[in-house]
Amino acid sequence: SSLQIFVLIRCRSGDFQFTDREVSSMVEQIEEMRLLGADGIVGGALTDEGKIDEEATSRFIQAAGPLPFTFHRAFDEVHDSMTGITRLRDLGAERILSSAGLPKISEDPQRLRKLATYAGEHPVILACGGIRSENISVLAALPEIREFHSAATGTGGGVNEEEVREMKAVITKGC
After folding, report:
1. Which one of 52, 66, 95, 172 has the lowest number of neighbouring Cβ atoms within 10 Å?
2. How distant, in Å, are the alpha carbons of 17, 26, 56, 67, 149 from that of 33?
3. Contacts of 156 (CB under 8 A, 6+ apart)
4. pLDDT score at 66
5. Strand, coil or helix: 46
6. Rounded to whole angstroms, how far apart are CA atoms 30 and 45?
7. Quick check: 1 pLDDT over 60?
8. Per residue in 102-137, pLDDT tens?
9. Which of 128, 135, 130 is nearest to 166 (CA)?
10. Rg over CA atoms, the chain
11. What digits encode the pLDDT tens for the residues 25-72?
12. Distances in Å between the alpha carbon of 43 and those of 12, 63, 162?
C-alpha cells in the first residue's frame, strides 16, 4: 500500500476564528495542495460562539474538490459536539480528528466512543490525543473507532519507526 499524504492547512497558530482574508488564503493553499497531488486535506474553522464556521469550512471542502476533507482538532472546542458532527456531515467532511477534548484519549475512551457511535459510518471519527503503542489497544478494542492519528515521535524528534510498527501490530492483532 502506498503512503497517503493528507495536508494540514492552517494559516497561523492560535484560535480557529479566521478573517475573510485568512480563509481566502487557506482556500488558495488547499487548491494548490490538490494540484500538487495531496491525497486529502485537513483543516477547519470555528465561530466566536464555539460552533463550526460553516461558511469557511464549506469553502475549504469545495476547494478540496474530490479529495477527502478531515476537520481537525478544532472540533474539540465545539460547544455541542453532536450538532457539530451533524453540521460537518451535511457539509461533506469525511473525517473528524478528535480526542473528545482530552489530552490523552486513552484516559476515557468511552467519551470518543459516544461521538463515534453518534457519527456512525460518516463522518469517521479519527482518534487522536497521546496515542502510543502502550495505550492504543484500549481504543482498538472499540469497534466504533477504526482510525487513529499519532505523532509517534522519537526521543530525538521525528517519527519513531519502531513505535509505528508496534502500533500497527496492536491494531492488526485486534482485527
Report:
1. 66
2. 22, 10, 18, 10, 21
3. none
4. 97
5. strand
6. 14
7. no
8. 999 999 999 999 999 999 999 999 999 999 999 999
9. 135
10. 16
11. 999 999 999 999 999 999 999 999 999 999 999 999 999 999 999 999
12. 12, 11, 29
Cell of 97: 480528528
42 - beta bridge partners? Answer: 8, 70
- The answer to pTM > 0.90 is yes
The pLDDT assigned to 3 comes to: 75
For residues 141 and 137, give the distance between their C-alpha atoms in angstroms, rounded to a whole number: 6
